[in-house]
Write a structure and sequence with these properties.
Number of strands: 8
Strand order of the largest sheet: 7-6-5-4-3-2-1-8
Strand content: 15-25%
CATH architecture: Alpha-Beta Barrel
Shape: globular
Structural class: alpha/beta
Radius of gyration: 17 Å
Number of helices: 9
Helix content: 40-55%
Largest sheet: 8 strands, parallel
CATH class: Alpha Beta
CATH superfamily: Alanine racemase
Bound molecules: pyridoxal-5'-phosphate
């Protein structure tokens, strides 16, 4: 299956970058994929998945968590504040913390539920008006605000502009993380994950290269 091929490409990219084997977490992005493709990857032993929509994730992961021990589900899509409660219930990591109103809602739910999903702050590295994420300059102030709320973001996430060379965006994300004492970097998708690993990604988000095109089947 494609999963094995992607895993060996990740291992090769780790070696090429002089990085420790297993230092990169593969998030298999299962959004809108037919159930049988996802269960095939679960049957093959993979346990870390990414979803973009709270409602869709609610419809499938509670059942799969019962059937497959050790599943971890990461929210990688835009998160509406009114879905914060469900998101804290459902997800082990949230990659799209991008505004203080959401940080407040998450902090409240984390305190209420006693669950602490790993948090990544999304950075709009390309300064694109239509794209989610805070601007690079805003990060230090945003982090202070998050910490005042009792949150401890551990990493940064970006989606480079389409059709652009992703390298400057990956480098910016890495520099920002280093400058702000954050360890995790969520960057790299099907088309550019090896480049992202060379630039320090700790989490790659790969959908179509594992499961096939999302509009097929
Ligand atoms: C859908 C999605 C991915 C996976 O994209 P592929 O190109 O299929 O690998 C990764 N990250 C985010 C934020 C996504 O929405």
């Amino acid at each position: 299956m494609e999963l094995d091929h992607i895993k060996s490409r990740i291992a090769a990219a780790e070696r090429a970058a002089g990085r420790e084997a297993g230092s990169v977490t593969l998030i298999a992005v299962s959004k809108v994929q037919p159930a049988e493709r996802v269960t095939a990857v679960l049957d093959a032993g993979h346990r870390t998945f990414g979803e973009n929509y709270v409602q869709e994730a609610q419809g499938k992961w509670p059942d799969w968590r019962q059937r497959f021990a050790g599943v971890s589900v990461h929210m990688i899509g835009p998160l509406q504040s009114n879905k914060a409660k469900a998101a804290v219930e459902l997800f082990d990591a949230i990659h799209t913390l991008d505004r203080i109103s959401l940080a407040r809602k998450l902090a409240h739910q984390i305190a209420e539920q006693g669950r602490t999903p790993q948090l990544f702050i999304q950075i709009n590295t390309g300064d694109e008006p239509q794209k989610a994420g805070i601007l690079a300059d805003e990060l230090p102030g945003f982090l202070d605000q998050c910490r005042d709320l009792g949150l401890s973001p551990q990493g940064l996430m970006c989606i480079p502009p389409e059709d652009a060379d992703p390298v400057p965006h990956f480098r910016l994300l890495r520099r920002l993380a280093g400058d702000n004492g954050l360890d995790l970097l969520s960057m790299g998708m099907s088309a550019d994950f090896e480049t992202a690993i060379a630039e320090g990604a700790t989490h790659v988000r790969i959908g179509s290269a594992i499961f096939g095109a999302r509009d097929a089947g």
